[in-house]
User: Fold this.
Amino acid sequence: MRRPSAVLVIPTLAAVAAVLHGCGEEPYFGSSPAVRSDFFSREGASLLVGLPKLPWAMPKPIAWTNAGNADALLHCPPGYTSRTHLQDMARVQTQIPAGVGKALSDCGMHCDNISSCKAFMFGSDEKRCVVLHNDEPGDGLIKDYRFCLKVKPRHFGSSEAPLLRRSEYMQQEHAEIAVGEDIRIYAVGSSNLLWMTWLDQLHLVLRRLGYRLPVVPSNISARLYTLEAQTCDDSQYFEYLRTTRYAKIGWSSWDFAFEGWEGCKNGWRYANGIKVKCQHGAGCAVGKDPVYLSQIAEDASGSNITLLATWQNDDQQWSTHYKCFDGTKIDSLKVVPLSISMLLKMIRAIRVKNPRTLILVMGKYPQTLRHVTYPFLKRYNNMVKEAVEKEPRTLFIDFYMPNADEGYFYQMAHSGHPNCRGSKLLAYSVMDRLFKAKILSRSIRLGETSKHHILSPNCSHADLVECQTSALCWIDPRDNQCKTYSPGSLDYHTICKGTLCADFNKEQARKRTRTLLAGGRTTLQSWRGTDSENSKAKASQGLGFHT
Assistant:
């Protein structure tokens, strides 16, 4: 019995050009015969095809296999998912040359650039791209064609920054997290998570790339929002975003790294050979409530990416006359082994709870006169980086923060903390590292992140990559124009205070988001206050602590 053979009828040369080049709306499969035969219909030209039923529409389809000589072509590009194939179809696909993979990726990019494109079909033999305006391929498929369905990102409201345009991002194959998948972020650190916007800017760019960012639940009263921050040019797009953070003003790495007051005798304990006071905060003089590393690790285990910014104050003990060290002056570089040991304790505690959680250790920015990156700070960062990156699934986020002679990158609102521009640098450094480590399949398109490029001031004449790479520029989503990115306001405003800052109730979150989007930068408050974070903040500022 003869098998039905494929019959391909091409009505006109124009139809072929429409399929191959995609000018305007593209031809598609799956529409009714009447529509498919109407070359001048609003849906565009289509090819008349008479083929057997699709392999994945047949009984008991099985998953696409990577057996044998399988290569990159077996996978749809980032941002797309494939259907299942029969085993014999999969065996045929393993023989397709890997060189065709670029054409397949280009087909996905072509679909990205057409707002009405919901999927595409790609023929390997002819390197042929067929853009589809619906999410079903129809009743026919040539044996070497594959069907790739565009991942549906969440809906963006009219007041929100939309998905990035195709020209604004780059993508790669075989990354760990595909577009449209969940990225569950959890952060632990000091006031850089409460007085700066870098974590919120990171959330925003991931969201605009098409990832989903569900809230990581917390059992230790972690916060969802920044406490007090400057007003940035793009604050309206990220201030309402919820990102779980366990953050304490003026704390150092050892404040997070023990099981309560374990090892304390007469108010002191030894941490990596250094005598440390058993109390929290700037000068170890603010808080006496016990904090348990195991509880922080349990929280972090619910994330697939945890960011650690706990050690930024470790070498700042001079500002409180070394009260944490019982008045003993300890040189900054002699504090490095203490920082490393405390970070490793936290990393390993999280690893015990969830070996798959990726841990990012944020680098230290200069807290020096005129914010100069002196050689000792480079060495400090390098020593920490070398130590933590020996741990499984742990990356160090390095960056260069310009000094006062190179640009305005630090706040007046909270002295010693990088401003909106500095926060952008931190957020984009995380994106750059995650993409290069093949964690993310899609990231914002950046150029060289050298000092020259991040300080490029020619925003009005910059191309897209130059604009996104420079910390002095940004692309305004309202008109997609490159503009100067200001340092931010001189003062700060309260973003969230009270108990709702740790309210993980979804319905309450929706109400707050609607309120914030409708009313601009409305302060999030509740009637019941907490134990005065503002007074602690002022105390830390008075003592000279910067993060």
User: Anything to note?
Assistant: Residues 7-150 form one domain. The chain has a mean pLDDT of 79. The radius of gyration is 27 Å. The chain has 15 helices and 19 strands.
